[in-house]
Design goal:
By secondary structure, the protein is an alpha+beta fold. It contains seven helices and nine strands. It has a single domain, classed as Pnp Oxidase, Chain A, CATH 2.30.110.10. The longest helix has 16 residues.
């Protein structure tokens, strides 16, 4: 991924947040038969950027999982930015985005650890629900999960290289940033509140203005 110092993202805590909030991953492998691409959810393990997940058989063989490095891509918020949101000077459209690439060789999990990781994954995604359903919530459910888990192969990826990028109009003047955020938070065809929120995180003056407005209103 081509890097631009203006858009480089190197804060481990921020990268972890992106992985945690956007866990639907793209797995890319350069195999002996060519490029292979699959999509699976991932969860963070521990306090670094180690992730765990699983693939369904025969994706483990298709990807030659564990035999070579792979890239796991996490895509954060993204969206179209119209040149009409800029000033009157000549401009071209662009796309703002946040993305993380994790490189490394996956470690295959034993069937027992894979079953535990699957249970953890279910717990992570069930937690926000009013009545979370655990994979091991009942004997019947646990037995069923143990049976179908045999059709999956778990893996752990400890990244040896991390590339992360947040292209969020950091190279634009303040008045244009304000206009882009206003459009993204609006009701137009390219409204994207999550992208606007990402821009607010890298442009502190936006929330400073919001705080000042709130104080004036009170």
């Amino acid at each position: 991924m081509r890097q631009n110092p203006s858009f480089a993202l190197d804060d481990p805590a921020e990268i972890r947040r992106i992985v945690r909030e956007h866990p639907w991953a793209t797995l890319v492998s350069a195999t002996s038969t060519g490029l292979q691409v699959s999509h699976y959810p991932v969860v963070l393990e521990g306090d670094d950027l180690t992730i765990v997940s699983h693939v369904g058989r025969p994706d483990d063989a298709i990807h030659e999982l564990g035999e070579h490095d792979v890239v796991v891509i996490l895509q954060g918020p993204h969206g179209y930015v119209s040149p009409g949101w800029y000033d009157a000077d000549p401009a071209v459209p662009t796309w703002n985005f946040v993305t993380v690439h994790l490189h490394g060789r996956p470690e295959l999990l034993s069937p027992e650890e894979n079953l535990r990781v699957l249970a953890d994954l279910v717990d992570v995604f069930e937690a926000p629900l009013p009545e979370p359903r655990s994979m091991n919530g009942t004997i019947e459910n646990a037995d069923y999960a143990a049976r179908i888990s045999r059709g999956t192969v778990g893996f752990r990826l400890r990244p040896t290289r991390v590339e992360a990028k947040a292209k969020l109009s950091q190279n634009k003047p303040e008045h244009i940033v304000r206009t882009v955020v206003a459009e993204l938070e609006g009701t137009g065809p390219y409204a994207q509140p999550q992208l606007a929120a990402a821009m607010r995180r890298v442009h502190p003056f936006l929330d400073e203005q919001r705080a000042d407005a709130g104080g004036a209103a009170s």
